[in-house]
Every structure is written in C-alpha cells, then in structure tokens.
Known about the structure:
Helix content is 53%, strand content 10%. By secondary structure, it is α/β, with parallel strands linked by helices.
Amino acid sequence: MTETIAVPFWLLALLAALTVWWVLERLFLPSMRWYLRRRVNRVIDELNTRLNIRIRPFQFTKRQVLIDRLAYDPKVQETMQEYAQENNVPREVTQAEVLRYAREIVPAFNAYAYFRIGYWLARRLARLMYRVRANFADPARLANVDSRATVVFVMNHRSNMDYVLAAFLAAEQSALSYAVGEWARIWPLQQLIRAMGAYFVRRKSNNPLYRRVLERYVHMATEEGVCQAVFPEGGLSRDGRLQQPRLGILDYMLREHDPEGRRDIVFVPVGINYDRVMEDRSLLRSLDKTLPRRSGWFVIRTTLGFIFHNVALMIRNRWRRFGYAAVNFGRPISVHDYCRSKGLDLRRLTTEDRHAEIEKFGCSLMTAISVLVPAVPIPIAAATLLRAGSAGLNEFDWKGVFYKMTGDLRASGMFVTVPTVTQEHAFEIAVNMLTLRRLVVKEGDVFRVAPDAREVLQYYANSLAVVPA
C-alpha cells in the first residue's frame, strides 16, 4: 500500500490540467459570473433611474436567443425558402447562411461596457481632441418624449468621430445602437462595437436573403423600443454638403408601423460639425475616380504617422486641440403625429407608394438636420476667405467679414459656437490653424488661399451651406 507509483510526466500534466479546469468550471467561473452579473445589474438599475430613455429588456436578452429569434422569424424563413428554390440550393445550406448573417448582425450589448468603459473613453477622446459644444433646441420636449416610444437620432455624417461624439453627448439620454459599416469588422474592434450595442451592415449588399435578415433585425429592435442612431446619408459626406438620404433603414423601421399602435417612433434630428475633420483630404480624394486606390498599408502607415506626430507634439508640450466639435439636437418628430396629419398608414400602401412616402419623410428629416448643423470658426473663416477670391484679404478686413458672417449666421437662427465676447480669439485661432495646415498663405499683409487648398477650404465652407461664387 505504501509503494511508489510512477506515472509519465505527460499524464501528470494532463491530470493537473483537468483538475485546474474542474476547479475553474465548478467553483471559480460560476462565482465570477455571479459577481459580474451583480455589478452589471447594479449599473442597469442606477442608469434606469437617471436616463430619459430607459434601456429596454430586448437589449439584455441573451444574444443566442436573439439570433435564433431572428433566424427563425417567419418572414426570414419565407424568403429563405424562396431563395433556396430560385438558386437550387439545399435548404440546410441556406439556413446556415441565414444563421451566419444573424450572428454577424445581432449585437452583444453590455451596459457595463457601454457606460463604464465606452462612455469614459468617448468622453476623454472627444475632449482631448476638440472643444466640445452641445446645444438642445427643445430640451424639455426631448425629456418628455413618451417613455414607451422608440427614439431614433438621425444625423449628418461628417467624420468617423461622429460615433464617439454622439454617443458621449447622448449618454445622458440613453444608450445608442448604431448601424456600423464593414470597415469596423476587425479584431478586437468588432467585439467592442458589438458590446456597445452596434450592429454591422453590408451597405452595398444586394443579396435578398441578407437584406431580409437585416430588415427583420431593424424591425425587431424598433418594435422593442431600442434607442437607435442613424446616418440617413448612408456614409461620410465627401464634399462637405449634406447628401441625399438613403432610405433603406428608414423603410425597415417604418414599413410596418401602426399609427394607432402602442409604441410611437420619435425621430430626433441632429446636426454635427467640426473645425477639423481628420479624413478631409481622403474624402475629397475619393471624389476623383481616376486616382488609383490607396493600399491598406498606406492607410495604416499614414494613420500611425498622424498619431505618432501628435504624440510627439504632446510630449514637447506643443500640441493643440483641433478646434471645436459641435452637436445640435433638434425638436423630436413623432411618426404617429406625422402619419395622422397626412392620413397615412404605410402598411396599407403598395411598395412604390410606400417608398414615395418614406422618401418625402426622409427629405423632411434631412431638411430638419440641415438647419441644425452648427457654425464653427474654421468653416466661417474658410467661407469668408473664399469669397474674397484671388485678391485675398488683409487681417483687418478678414476679421471684419468673419465677424459679419458670424453675426448673420447667429441672426438666422444657426447654432454658432463663436462666443461674441471672445470672437477675436476664435478668429486668431482659426487663422493660426489654417496657416499651420498650409491651407492659407500670407504674402505681405494679405492672406490668400494656398494653391492646392481650395478644395479643402470649400469642403469646410460647404458645411454651412454658404458656397462662395
């Protein structure tokens, strides 16, 4: 009984690994799950006492349950059957494709990650890079939106910073669920984005099966009251102007809306503008289809170079923020009220008539957004210098027309981030930024547009809908 038993080292290591796994599986992991779930529930309870738009039970439903619910939705199944027959594909293969689309689309919202990590990062990043300013056209009305309504923030798309800025500034209202393009489907970014409640969209896909799965997910989220954020333009503005709306997501939200139903859909138009859009030159370059497409390595190298350059400036205490980033929240628009005023029930219209009505509604949303886009110093300075043409302006004259345009924009009702008492300081900073970026050159006492910078300055002027002749 006391004899020594020799076992191979590999067997000992295997037994030790199995023992550790058993301890983790039976003791440590359940305790850890309980601890994390307790903390998450505490965060949710705290948030729902102060958020104007409560987090919905749908957002806490187990992700696999939502995937199954989406994949076996009757309309998805009907489209799947038609797709399999038309393409002569086995039903099992088509079902697997549907499940793949559902896993790709359905987010994995985590309230703790959103409000304790994502919000903190968004706030720090936004304030580090910009002087952030926000304005609410009718805060009382926004705060008093029906608690059962689905709230959708619709905004112009200036920069990829829009996601960060809007999420940070809307965090006092609710958690926003975004539709994010395929550019973000890289590890570990996609895991973080899913945890923040966003869902991925293949914007250029014409696959009817995929479009049906996406449509039913948007319908599910809207029916369950999930607060969402939508860019009606469908992508970044390439020239600084507002683009025509793309109506796919709006159609998915509205096509089965009951104007007499329990849950209203309330759209909140939002205007965003920046003194500096990091992607400005890349966006303008994309307008010229004759130019060769830059490689992924070029994009990575340029991005890292930009980051290292700014870090070096920070270390030498020479770094400055990129001016203002401003967000203007408009008055809520109730779909119930809109449909009643027009005598509309979109469910009863033909496809063509429904698309026509949704197009009218989408254009009215874009009009509401257009008057909300804030005026920030760089676009005002760019517009005034462009108006001067090749003659340019000396500093005194430029300052005068800058002040005049600022006053005119404010008088027109536009949200202007240039305070009257400090507009001279704002003008000087704008001129300094334009000069440092080599968008403006000074020849003697006269400032002129740099030879290769007219398109960039026009891009910023276009954000004000002030287009020089």
